[in-house]
Amino acid sequence: MIDRTDPEGAIAEAAAKYSNWGRWGADDVLGTVNFLTEAKRREGAALVRRGVSFSLAQSFDMNGPQKGWRRRTNPVHTMLDTGTDAALGLQGFPHGIGGADDVIAMPLQCSTQWDGLGHIFDHGKAWNGRPAEKVVTSDGDLVTGIETLAAPLCGRGVLLDVGRVIGENGELPDGFAITEEHLEATAEAHGVAVGTGDIVVVRTGQLARARREGWGEYAGGPAPGLSFTSIGWLHRTQITAIATDTWGFEVRPNEFDDAFQPVHQVVIPNMGLLIGEMWDLDALAADCAGDGVHEFFLSAPPLPVTGAVGSPVNPLAVK
């Protein structure tokens, strides 16, 4: 049971119980990505049967859900050279050649993305017990920058469509807390096992609802998501990473009276677990429901932005 009045105590207890500090040595920068071995990548690659692929990314454009909270805006895409410039001969190139060029300005966590290990701290401590002020400075994440994850993130992916199995009409209501029991029941319904090194994607159906009804409070408002009580499952299964189709991964409002993202506070700096948010799982989920296969090869490398604490990603699921 959760004591709603004591988030501090619950976070401290979970952080101590599920800490992976020192598990892979004092210098580790990968956290649970260490579980994703070469053997797991071969296992994932062997899951490709039909060759059909799905992008799990939302669009990166001005029509996204962001409303400016903590300066998170939607991407701004600007053309530097256009076909008009070329047609009018304004580009100054010889023999009729012309071209187009563009630039994008965006927060790194404004659409489909990974939270890096330098994104969240617990009482001033970053992943593996390092002092936060020595890890992330004005120069960026000097230790666990997202570029450290540019190569390893491909392997066996598993979809847990909790919205379809537990919800109504394929969707969970806002504020629904996904427990270990819900995750296990969904895996059983799909006939799939979750284990060491897997990249798990959890569909709640909230993104489908937002597309139907409008963004509303999708970015930061009430949402279905992982319960604080699911942290033990996240640790015990030894998964590499987990992503959802929601803005904040964990259930919102959070399960304590006065708290902000307590699951993040435990699993990122203490467990070293990689978290993805705002993934688009609807097309993949429809295909999985159709053929009954909920495992696939998943490639989801972040952009290697040096020192970044998060990164946009275009995850590809191949079945």
TrEMBL record:
Q: Which InterPro entries match?
A: KFase/CYL, KFase_sf
Q: Where exactly are the transmembrane stretches of this chain?
A: none
The name this protein carries in UniProt is: Cyclase family protein
Give the top-rank taxon of the lineage listed in the UniProt record for this protein.
Answer: Bacteria
